[in-house]
Amino acid sequence: MVDxxxxxxxxxxxxxxxxxxxxxxxxxxxxFHVEHIVARQHQGGDELANLALACDRCNLYKGxxxxxxxxxRTVDLFHPRRHVWEEYFEFSGAKIIGISPTGRATVRLLxxxxxxxxxxxxxxxxxxxxx
Length: 131
Ligand SMILES: [Zn+2]
Known about the structure:
Shape: globular
Bound molecules: zinc ion
């Protein structure tokens, strides 16, 4: 089990944003999850290095996956502790574009550009908020 103090550390470290799609938790109807990057069923532990803050959508679509298919190959998914977001993704308007095989595979598997999710980002942009 991930204890309360650890959960708080994960939230703080993430700046209360999903570490995959960058959605601020305050804009979500549902609390974000402290997720295991490597799932327990793949022997991932409860240490901070294996935890990330994820919105319910990213968490749901990621599930226990560690990899996805991209361009006919199997590539690792984005790992919030090992990878730097800006090296894998960029925003194009309200959409998130993968700029590496890992980025593209993660955008697709986590369904980051589902219409409802793009609409939330567009409203942020319309209010002058940064993504
Ligand atoms: Zn997310």
